[in-house]
Amino acid sequence: MGDVGRVPVGIIGASGYGGVQLVRLLIDHPGVELVYLGGESSAGKAFGELYPHLNHRVDLIIEPIDLDQIAARCQVVFLSLPNGLACQMAPALLEKGCKVLDLSADYRFSNLETYENWYGKTRSDQAIAETAVYGLPELYRDRIAEAQLVGCPGCYPTASLLALSPLLKQGLIVPETAVIDAKSGTSGGGRQAKTNLLLAEADNSFAAYGVARHRHTPEIEQVCSDLAGHEVLVQFTPHLIPMVRGILSTVYATLRDPGLVREDLLTIYMAFYRSSPWVKILPSGVYPQTKWATGTNLCYIGVEVDPRTDRIIVMSAIDNLMKGQAGQAIQCLNLMMGWNETLGLPQLSFYP
Amino acid sequence: MGDVGRVPVGIIGASGYGGVQLVRLLIDHPGVELVYLGGESSAGKAFGELYPHLNHRVDLIIEPIDLDQIAARCQVVFLSLPNGLACQMAPALLEKGCKVLDLSADYRFSNLETYENWYGKTRSDQAIAETAVYGLPELYRDRIAEAQLVGCPGCYPTASLLALSPLLKQGLIVPETAVIDAKSGTSGGGRQAKTNLLLAEADNSFAAYGVARHRHTPEIEQVCSDLAGHEVLVQFTPHLIPMVRGILSTVYATLRDPGLVREDLLTIYMAFYRSSPWVKILPSGVYPQTKWATGTNLCYIGVEVDPRTDRIIVMSAIDNLMKGQAGQAIQCLNLMMGWNETLGLPQLSFYP
Amino acid sequence: MGDVGRVPVGIIGASGYGGVQLVRLLIDHPGVELVYLGGESSAGKAFGELYPHLNHRVDLIIEPIDLDQIAARCQVVFLSLPNGLACQMAPALLEKGCKVLDLSADYRFSNLETYENWYGKTRSDQAIAETAVYGLPELYRDRIAEAQLVGCPGCYPTASLLALSPLLKQGLIVPETAVIDAKSGTSGGGRQAKTNLLLAEADNSFAAYGVARHRHTPEIEQVCSDLAGHEVLVQFTPHLIPMVRGILSTVYATLRDPGLVREDLLTIYMAFYRSSPWVKILPSGVYPQTKWATGTNLCYIGVEVDPRTDRIIVMSAIDNLMKGQAGQAIQCLNLMMGWNETLGLPQLSFYP
Amino acid sequence: MGDVGRVPVGIIGASGYGGVQLVRLLIDHPGVELVYLGGESSAGKAFGELYPHLNHRVDLIIEPIDLDQIAARCQVVFLSLPNGLACQMAPALLEKGCKVLDLSADYRFSNLETYENWYGKTRSDQAIAETAVYGLPELYRDRIAEAQLVGCPGCYPTASLLALSPLLKQGLIVPETAVIDAKSGTSGGGRQAKTNLLLAEADNSFAAYGVARHRHTPEIEQVCSDLAGHEVLVQFTPHLIPMVRGILSTVYATLRDPGLVREDLLTIYMAFYRSSPWVKILPSGVYPQTKWATGTNLCYIGVEVDPRTDRIIVMSAIDNLMKGQAGQAIQCLNLMMGWNETLGLPQLSFYP
């Protein structure tokens, strides 16, 4: 029934991009044994049939979703499902003693009203939602370690919040001046066949979408408000880059103290992330390339100050499917199990 | 010696991307005859050897640069050279009666001090520079029509200024809140073999560059200040998109009057560009794709208002080598010759 | 009811990639007036809503498909539909006097048995199918000029046959040694949302498909056999390139006469295509880039001989949506109407 | 001086793509300690300055090339240099007792005349060259294990030979019918700034190059001849794919025995590669995607038979910088040191 001492884990929703990342990472993770893959439409298929390149290492069959069975076999369950499904499964799994990491938006909000407004679904599980911890380890490391239920952050919020947090926490900027211009590779749209994500449509083109109304906005604002100690609204605009993986978030804000120079801010950022192995502050004058983060759980941050305008410009780069999704979920798992935060996660992007 | 009634034109610097666009457009332009191509390093070569796909239509040889000869043969000369060279050639050509369109930065600034500060070159031709007209027809149509010397705008300034102009002209925004987050395909870097522009480096990656110090900043500010009637500083950040052509400029600014809604602003934009055939204001809720502009001289503009933050977000898309460079130069030529502004310029992008 | 003297034309199936190419080309074609766009799922929508970048030039509404109406309004009808539909519509349109150009596979085969075997559909219109002319003007120019019904070639067959025809016609190769290794951009898959055509799947990957069983095989063989004067089987393998447009066909065959050198063959190719304005034979040692053909109706051909193996290697490059689809259909239209073959078709790719 | 028991290794030519792959892989390799990086033009620079994304793990400075010093500090030396340099350094290193793995073409040929003919350089080290083993472990595993000098294969030969070897070894095909149509991402061209490898040039285009004269031809032929037991000439054509990494080789050959079906051949391939952990034979009807191999040392092989033409079509996919270069060199190192062939090499591509 598995390696002695390894934690048995399962994934519900294994066939999408979140799922395939989790599978790839978990089969090489020294602390866990992957014992269950679940899905609806793909139930009965060998995972290696869906992803032939993993066939030589994964011999699991995708099974139907039976929560009793799953809880009996798994100590930890990852939910990688469309929004609105996790909140129908997590309560039962938690009750049976599983630890649950949800990659959807269902458990990201402490106030379910925000979720209901932005996601257009009603919820009646406020009590459970309140026990969920927002899975951004760089801010909530200790609470994640204690959590039974973690709501893993969205990809854009991860990149944006890692860029903004030191500024808000230290009160260095005028919060309402924050403009987040974010850009993502198209894998963020998932493995669904949408016309606008076809290579023939998306390649060699670039555009914004969801301007002034993207659902990651309230998620960013929730954490910003938490850090600032008062309600903060941000301007958030996502764009689609004609490439597969990666998010670059370019964040603008007006400094409260115009005397601060780049080196001051780099020092502040390095101090803030001193205990965060997955955040790398780049040397003065170096700006992050998304490619540097590809395939890793890293977030690279570069900082610039414009003395002409008294603005700070912070750029953060992540792999949207790693630190922005599956990698971060495993980072949270590591914390929940009391393991080293870096266990089983890639640190080195190949290049080019 | 050529078609009767066609204006003889020449291009100095024909081998780069600016040059090859000009050649392609001018050989099909009904008003001109392309009689001269000049270059230093490629002198003596057939143009069709450099660009075999144009060989069946262009039989010109690239000639050495002899200004006397050029002036004798050409009524109009395009200069498509690195910064700092046009200002050494334009005076002689102008004196001999040629009309000159410069695609470099040399004649974009009314105050040469700005040029000297940002481009690190000294200039002693303030008198001639003052006669140059900034070649953005949507703003300076009448002056271009009268000009003998036109300094064609940079690619980023073109996209950014077309997005910002109606707002500044009408006093609708707080100018110092303007943030311009711009993204360009890599052809903007020209046909020089730079390591960072290799496909192996640039593909599937995304990054900012020149943050808070890109040379297009003062060019944008010069026109913004002109429109606003007082000095305006902007925040301008360029990024490199892993694709060949296209610029998307996402412009943020705080509205003076929070009561304005999207439809109000679309009306204002449509009125502002009523006589501008190359600017298309998109319907409410539609945002521009750079691909729509590819290969054409068009600029597509989409407008959004965020009632939560009282900001306007304007997105403008152009082809950086067309409206952002060679196409706009020909649009200026059309005005200088008294022709219809659209003559000889493509209006329909292919898709996909 | 339209420009005097312009031929009224319609398109059934206007919303896909074939349709949008036809629309773009026909609205600028000096000989025709585009009066009708038809579709099922998109009926009632403005064409400019589907393709906002064409909105400023096309104000047609997509209409339901009513063959009587269409025939009453159109002299020429393009059918741009999935396989199996054209053969249900063409007979009625022909009977009412329309000229019909079909972009599907329905009218490409003189022997419907071949169609039935490879396409898995039964057909009962052999009589009409026999009146159809295969729309490859470089081979069947005269017959197309007389045709009322043209079956436009597939994209791969177009590239492959233009590469092979001079060799087969002159008996220069051993036909059964012909290997056609073809590569296409993903727009060849159409505007349908298929998972494997997503940018996230197809970008930065390359693979073959349909090996030894692609439906374009019998189409290539039909023409090869016609040229050779006896039945010819070819090896045809298509691949998907991570890019939007373009086909490169690399064709290998053993020369009957090992004494032939590259220059001999270039002479033969140039003679064969002397009257074909859309085929360009490249100079000795130059091989075609698909980019040179992008957006044009051109086919670029490069020829190499390997004296070590006595093989000829011919490379042909086309834009799969132009010479490989909509452009070629319009080239056929030009012939059918007695116009110049090049009328209304782009000759110059932009570059880069 | 390093971890007890780890083998000290160095890299001469660390700054190119081969070098950066080696660095990334070797710093995580459990059997070695990377103690030296050498280069000419980049000497004195921190490696982490060239590749900022590796800065957090690599603190080595690139040093000048002093062979005495290198030999004193390193037990194994990788040479990742342009052709013609390794043969000037390897002899001294070998004499001082180092094991040497050369990634250039210098030691790939047992007969230096072939090298001299195809590479245009004269050589006088035939004696040493004869001691070199061709570093394709799937064919020469035992000899590599005994070698002091390994000439690592080119990227195209690796993919092509793994596809062809079982056929030639078993005498299943007519050797002179072999056509190898190979396609590579542009990283194969290295990190040199060549115009044709710019993203603006290479993206969205596809072309062949080096037709009938590419230098990898004699390398492929040398091994094919070795396997067949007599001289074999092959037709080899490389193409450039608009993507970063990956080679797909499509190999055609006529079967001697037309009765063989796909399943027979799959069985033969699986038997041939039974002891080769890095070659994966795909299930019947599945063809390799280069993306499946990206970042790994794997070679995926798919086999098809065309009963109409009696040809076999074999497709092999590798990552040109891994199995095609640095990964394979480390696989050879593992064999030379008596370690498991898979030690320290990635087995799982991320996807997408």
From TrEMBL, chains A, B, C, D:
Residues 8-147 form the Semialdehyde dehydrogenase NAD-binding domain. Pathway: Amino-acid biosynthesis; L-arginine biosynthesis; N(2)-acetyl-L-ornithine from L-glutamate: step 3/4. Its main location: cytoplasm. It catalyses: N-acetyl-L-glutamate 5-semialdehyde + phosphate + NADP(+) = N-acetyl-L-glutamyl 5-phosphate + NADPH + H(+). The keyword Cytoplasm applies. The active site is at residue 155. Its EC number is 1.2.1.38. Keywords: Amino-acid biosynthesis, Arginine biosynthesis, Cytoplasm, NADP, Oxidoreductase. It is found in: Cytoplasm. PROSITE patterns: ARGC. The keyword Amino-acid biosynthesis applies. One of its GO terms (molecular function) is N-acetyl-gamma-glutamyl-phosphate reductase activity. Belongs to the NAGSA dehydrogenase family. Type 1 subfamily. Catalyzes the NADPH-dependent reduction of N-acetyl-5-glutamyl phosphate to yield N-acetyl-L-glutamate 5-semialdehyde. NCBIfam families: argC. This is N-acetyl-gamma-glutamyl-phosphate reductase. It comes from Trichocoleus desertorum GB2-A4. The gene is argC.
